[in-house]
Request: fold
Amino acid sequence: VFCTYNMAAAAGPRKQKPHRGDVSKRPPPRAVSQPGDIYVNNNSHFLGQLDKAQKLLDSGIESACIHGLGKAIPLAINLAMELQRRSHDAYQLSTATSTVELVDDVTTTEGDTDVQVRNNSAIHITIRRKR
Reply:
């Protein structure tokens, strides 16, 4: 017998955060960018990022690193997998995940400014030519 379990229903009603005012998200922190770094986000044009990564790898660079944060993680994975597929498995991929602390500025209805800290998942995929 196949049984499905609805996790959302089992958890009960979701609690919503009280609206505290306007939230302004700060850009995520970045380490000092290296020549082989490729940052992917949801606004990135996939084919443009793919061409950029391919040109970077064809330029003779030893390795490239694709970074994706939050909702862009699947895009980063797809980019790396497509590079590997197009190269006929000539690249070796190594993956690391991390948690990034993000900071938001919250302006309350009274005009006060507050800071809100939250965590988001990140992926870092290093691409090297197989030897």
